[in-house]
Amino acid sequence: MAMGLRERRKQETRQALSNVAMRLFEAKGFDEVKIIEVADAAGVSKMTVTNYFPRKEDLVFDRAEVIIRSLADTVTARPAGENALTAIRRDFTARIAAEDAVPTPAFAQMVQNSRILTARVREIADLREQALGDAIAAETGQDDPLQRIVVAQLASVHRVLFGEAFRRVLDGRPRDEIVRMLATAADQAFDRLEASLGDCFIKA
Asked: Which InterPro entries does this chain map to (predicted)?
């Protein structure tokens, strides 16, 4: 369905506010910038900023909801006869190819320097795993601790390898080297998980 003019303008405003905020955060540090500074730089009121972004950290993670839903949506959209692991592997491989799994040095440093942002990264990962578990539960018609443990294993590749990419960016490693590391480690991890989880959550 095509986005209406009003919704498109809201999305454009939201993106513009996030872009302005990110420039300030990367220049001064997230914790040092006040919401009113973002509003002044964007030429809007403080209330406008908080209406679009109730939490200051939302200005950094403006696509948090998409990330949180990513694994659940990937699994939900997989074809009949395919297990959840294969769908997640295919999605992660595509993200590596597009270099979406590697943060920029400026972004990584900004997050590293803020406890609030570091906590938000962990929260997003937790919520992504929970959303995946909810999607699997809706599909299987059951929700128990063992199933959640399997879900945690399925989500672990994203969580661990993003952390590795983040750490290596901060260490100043070349981007192409990090991408190669992610591709190799992901293949090895998914191969090992396939041996134990390959028959789990096959879509009817």
From this structure: Homeodomain-like_sf, HTH-type_TetR-like_transc_reg, HTH_TetR
